[in-house]
Specification:
The chain is an all-beta fold. The protein contains no helices and eight strands. The protein has one domain. The protein is 0% helix and 66% strand. It has a six-stranded antiparallel β-sheet, with no helix packed on it. It has a two-stranded antiparallel ribbon with strand order 1-2.
Length: 122
């Protein structure tokens, strides 16, 4: 934030100019690990906390390894219809392939819808 003060048209008046610069609202994360169940796994996630300057939050996450693939998508509207209610949804896809270890494979697709209301100002 930049603040400029200039003397105005009279000694008791000033011209005040305030410039506000928005902080970066994006985050990207990467991870890698090892699990005895899944083997080597990695994940990456991208989050935007101010989508198109509207305050909406969007998260996209991918996780994968030799036997697993998972994708997640989340969206949150913090002021639904200009109210104090927040609403959002999450979608996921999960594929586990244990055909070589235990002769089974599973896929799950699902999601949820959520709504919230702040009970305090903090």
């Amino acid at each position: 934030m930049t603040l400029k003060r200039i003397i105005g048209s009279a000694p008791d008046r000033i011209i005040l100019t305030i410039e506000v610069v928005e902080d970066d609202t994006k985050s990207v994360s990467f991870g890698i690990g090892y699990s005895q169940t899944y083997g080597i796994i990695g994940d990456t996630a991208v989050t935007e906390r101010n989508l198109f300057g509207t305050g909406d939050k969007l998260t996209v996450k991918f996780t994968g390894g030799a036997t697993t693939l998972q994708a997640e998508l989340g969206f949150t509207e913090p002021h639904l219809l200009d109210s104090n209610f927040a609403a959002g949804f999450d979608l996921f896809y999960k594929n586990l392939d244990f055909t070589t270890q235990a002769s089974y494979m599973t896929q799950r697709i699902g999601g949820d819808v959520r709504i919230g209301y702040p009970i305090t100002d903090e």
